[in-house]
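User: Second chain of the day. Same drill as before.
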Amino acid sequence: MSIKVILADDHAVVRDGVKAVIERKSKDIRIIGEASNGNEVLKMARHMPADVYVLDISMPELNGIEATDRLKKLDRKSKIIILSMHDGLAYVERALESGAEGYILKKGATEEVIHAIREVHKGERYLSPRVAKYVIQGFLEKKRDVQPVKLVSKLTRREREVLQLIAEGLSTKEIAQKLNISANTAHVHSNNIMQKVNVHNRADMVRFALKEGIIQV
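Assistant: Same format as last time:
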């Protein structure tokens, strides 16, 4: 029986490249769906769930981290691998905290993705060697003191979604239309975000979103 995979990346050339490697070098893995953002992944997951989801971390509308969190709520058995350009500890920690079983760097994501898919499908975790090194180093260097609560963790799921759209440059009206809420509700979410993360305008919100990895340049 083949491992069913849904592949998501907002760059078609990346999807095509990863898909080509999988189809050429593995007979036990089958791509059953492709998506360009997290919302498309969730729609697919409801109608034709995959065994493993390979998600780009920096997709528009709904990024890979948020999509992972929602996939896990939809089905705790979902196996998820994050595909990223970033090897920083903060990105990896957020991915693992959201429930991802794997984290692969795009730079080396050729045959490595096949190995990662097989490993997480078996119930194991997989990190690119370079990423694993930073995770171990970060763990060893962490102080024993209780770490302060990250501001981003204070945001609700909807507020994180609104923050991503704000950071992507959408107006309050556009956000309301995209999320099917009123402009007033979108405005309230925006104000709540600013209050919770202690910023005072949209520019600061964008900087915060970049710092927390909600969007990438």
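The first helix runs from residue 12 to 25.

User: Great, on to the next one.
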